[in-house]
Design goal:
mainly alpha, 430 residues, globular, 18 helices
Length: 430
């Protein structure tokens, strides 16, 4: 066992300097991710008991993200990517400070906090995605995302339990309110630490100066459709666990405990898959994740009780990292292929990819809100996630088609790319 552990450490050390720094930066920042994803929603639920406000907060976040992707593309021409990456991480703490300072959770206040968090995510993810594609290749991306997901899943055990216990240990509402303030301060300190680690990397800005294009290779449009289905679940799935647990299981202590069920097993499974799987295994990995998600969502919709919520969360703990582990390498592989054909920088596609996610997020959040306002809150919580999970199964066939077409294109000589596609792809805004 010790020998295997030493081998894994040696394998990690064999990676490039930037690879290791990027993983370590994201590892430190991962400590605050459960707080952002789960307990901010729980805070809104505690102080308003209104799930629609949670979804509106999420919509504000997802509106800020694509705007910041555009702004980041402009800023990268003048500012080092490490500064923008660090700023994105620290803004998440600023957003939580704004939320905690609100005397009443008005829609305006929630919107401002949400937009600020969207700015944070936009800077963080746009730069993180570019650094991921520039520091990895198709052969080690399964390992990269498997390693990240392994640590994320382990952290998802410790942080929710610790924070849930900390909040629940307070006896009065005011003490619990103060506990959220303390947690916000800790989050801000952690984001500063992540920024310090980031500065140890030798990251270089994209050389491409034109980021907005209107026409793309047909393969890219297929990936955008896959992104739309991914965004469909993201529309409210990030906060759905918190809403379900608050409504069905109880308060923050139950939230932390429920999030930890099965997380150790999930972490081990994800690391092994990421470490030893091949690019050809991505459709299988993606399919298993999507199916587990659909099964959990359908069980929750059918029963809608404490048992079904726990089963859903357990399956989601395994399903979500499996989907991410397969999706991101597929995305970066397509960017590798299409950027060479169209002779554009990778950041062009990272920016454009956000448009597909955003459309899906709007549709996902709209599904919940329509059911919430036309039927009832319980109906929306019970069935919206099931509808979206079943629709997401279409992603299996789309991903299979994308990989097959990508492999065919990759085998063709570079000169075989049709001139017509090249001419169309050259049309751009700036």
């Amino acid at each position: 066992m010790l020998k295997k552990l030493v081998n894994e450490i040696t394998h990690f050390k064999s990676q490039s300097h930037n690879f290791k720094i990027l993983v370590l930066t994201n590892l430190v920042y991962a400590i605050v991710q459960p707080v952002i994803d789960i307990f901010v929603a729980a805070y809104i639920m505690r102080n308003s008991s209104d799930t629609s406000k949670v979804v509106i907060y999420q919509l504000a976040i997802y509106t800020g993200i694509p705007l910041t992707f555009l702004i980041n593309g402009f800023l990268l021409k003048y500012i080092n990517i490490r500064k923008l990456y660090s700023l994105g991480m620290m803004l998440s703490g600023v957003s939580m400070i704004i939320m905690m300072s609100l005397k009443s959770l008005s829609l305006t206040g929630i919107g401002v906090a949400g937009i600020t968090m969207g700015l944070s995510f936009g800077l963080y993810w746009s730069n993180r995605d570019y650094l991921a594609i520039s520091t990895t290749n198709d052969e080690n991306r399964n390992y990269y995302y498997g390693l990240e997901t392994f640590f994320y899943t382990i952290i998802a055990i410790v942080i929710p339990v610790a924070i849930g216990w900390f909040i629940q240990s307070k006896t009065t509402d005011q003490d619990k309110q103060n506990a959220y303030v303390i947690i916000t301060g800790i989050v801000f300190i952690v984001t500063i630490c992540a920024s310090v680690v980031c500065y140890r990397g030798k990251f270089v800005n994209p050389s491409e100066k034109k980021y907005i294009f209107f026409k793309f290779h047909p393969l890219w449009y297929k990936l955008l459709s896959l992104a739309m289905f991914k965004g469909l679940a993201q529309g409210f799935l990030v906060t759905a666990p918190a809403m379900l647990i608050f409504k069905i299981l109880g308060e923050e202590g139950a939230l932390g405990n429920a999030q930890s069920i099965g997380a150790v097993l999930a972490a081990i499974i994800i690391y092994i898959i990421g470490r030893f799987s091949k690019p050809s295994d991505r459709v299988k990995t993606f399919s298993v994740g999507l199916i587990l998600f659909a099964v959990g969502a359908c069980i929750n919709g059918a029963l809608f009780n404490k048992t079904s919520v726990i089963i859903f969360l357990l399956l989601l703990l395994i399903a979500k990292p499996l989907m991410d582990l397969a999706y991101y390498p597929i995305q970066l592989r397509v960017i590798d292929i299409v950027s060479k054909i169209e002779k554009r920088g990778e950041f062009v596609y990272i920016l454009n990819h956000e448009s597909g996610l955003y459309v899906g997020r709007l549709l996902g959040a709209a599904t919940f809100l329509v059911l919430y306002f036309t039927v009832s809150e319980d109906f929306a919580l019970r069935y919206a996630v099931g509808i979206i999970a079943v629709l997401q199964l279409c992603s299996i066939f789309i991903s299979k088609n994308i990989i097959a077409q990508g492999n065919r294109i990759a085998k063709e000589p570079e000169t075989a790319a049709p001139e017509r596609i090249m001419e169309e792809a050259a049309s751009n805004l700036i």
